[in-house]
Write a structure and sequence with these properties.
alpha+beta; seven-stranded mixed β-sheet; 28% strand
């Protein structure tokens, strides 16, 4: 009987042997898996149409993955773990990442939510399902002063009185489908994910943990995730928007070329990525574009407030009686929107909230603030 550590080591050895025996690098394995899922998604949409997606996404990826794709990240430490020393570098399979599928008001999947906090799934589901999803057309710009609490111990939200509306660069009324939505928690240099199982580099099993990964690792997970390809293809292969992700783009001055990375991996080998530079937005966009996503990728330079709400900004739902701010979101809201709050530049000064864009190589547009 093999222990989890033994199975990991044995699997690692076998896959390494297969890669080397076939003359394939780690990057070639990723290309092979990504291309297979991309082509399968295209065939599915061509044969069955988008209505079939209601029953097609969210399947167990372990039954679909032709080759295990191993990634690396760091454990998001508890206070005790942080006090004890450096965060643990871990390995995990791409198909062990937990996420929920977002759907519009007709039940057609339109995005993925990487949930790592109790409220994430319901909040992002309500945003995606709103009959008037204003964030498909525009976003609003606000400041910390626009945050308010409408009732004692209630849910905080954005007061729309003083926000500024900006036309969304991903809105195209002549193109079928909408943007592919990606939700999660992030910082300029790292993204939070939860895995069903993670292992130390020595093969010890840690079980279900929240990890931090850099943008390149996030992008590698997306291109080796069949649900991503099915949803993106069904939405017409258009823009990808980190709609409910805080600060993935860094700052407008330095974000797209930032060299700071809290998830640096210095060890060379087949289990990349190895030492990358860039932000969550730029790193993930580079991988997406390399593996067949011919569309711009957008992410904010500051905190985002993305949820269903009433016209004045009051969150659409009800506070759980007797709780300390627990909230039940309206599962069929009328409207939802995106607000970007002020970010900080390289010197720590506030700058107006905005979405940054990374264009694909096929585009003549440069990476810009929009």
């Amino acid at each position: 009987m093999h222990t989890p550590a033994g199975l990991l080591c044995r699997g690692t050895a076998e896959l390494t042997a297969n890669i080397r025996g076939a003359g394939q690098t780690y990057g070639e394995i990723i290309r092979q898996v990504a291309q297979g899922y991309r082509e399968s998604a295209r065939r599915m949409i061509d044969a069955e149409g988008t209505s079939a997606l209601i029953f097609s996404v969210g399947r167990d990826m372990r039954q679909l993955s032709p080759t295990p794709v191993w990634l690396r990240g760091r454990v998001l430490p508890t206070a005790a773990e942080r006090a004890a020393g450096r965060p643990t570098l871990v390995r995990f399979r791409s198909d062990s990442v937990a996420y929920s599928v977002l759907s519009d008001d007709e039940g057609i999947p339109n995005g993925l939510s990487f949930d790592s906090k109790p409220d994430d799934k319901a909040k992002r589901a309500a945003y995606a399902k709103a009959s008037d999803r204003q964030g498909d057309r525009q976003y609003e710009v606000g400041t910390d002063d626009d945050y308010r609490q409408w009732e004692k111990n209630g849910r905080w939200g954005i007061d729309r009185t003083n926000t500024k509306t900006v036309s969304a660069p991903w809105f195209d009324p002549d193109r079928p489908g909408g943007p592919t939505l990606i939700g999660g928690h992030a910082e300029p240099s790292r993204f939070h994910i939860e895995t069903d199982e993670a292992y130390t580099m020595d093969g010890d099993r840690l079980g279900r943990r929240v990890l931090t990964v850099d943008g390149f690792t996030l992008g590698t997970h997306l291109v080796t995730n069949p649900d991503f390809w099915v949803i993106h293809t069904a939405q017409g292969g258009g823009h990808i928007v980190y709609h409910s992700v805080c600060s993935p783009g860094g700052t407008t001055q330095t974000g797209l070329r930032s060299t700071y990375n809290n998830g640096v991996y210095s060890e060379p080998g087949d289990w990349g990525p190895v030492r990358h530079q860039g932000t969550t937005l730029s790193g993930s966009a580079e991988v997406l574009h390399r593996h067949g996503v011919d569309a711009p990728v957008h992410g904010a330079n500051g905190e985002t407030s993305t949820h269903a709400h009433h016209p004045d900004g009051r969150p659409d739902g009800r506070t759980v009686p007797g709780s300390d701010g627990d909230f039940n979101w309206n599962p069929v809201p009328d409207r939802s929107s995106i607000v970007v709050l002020s970010g900080k530049d390289a010197n720590g000064n506030l700058e107006e909230g905005a979405f940054l864009t990374v264009h694909p190589p096929s585009s003549s547009g440069a990476d810009t603030q929009v």
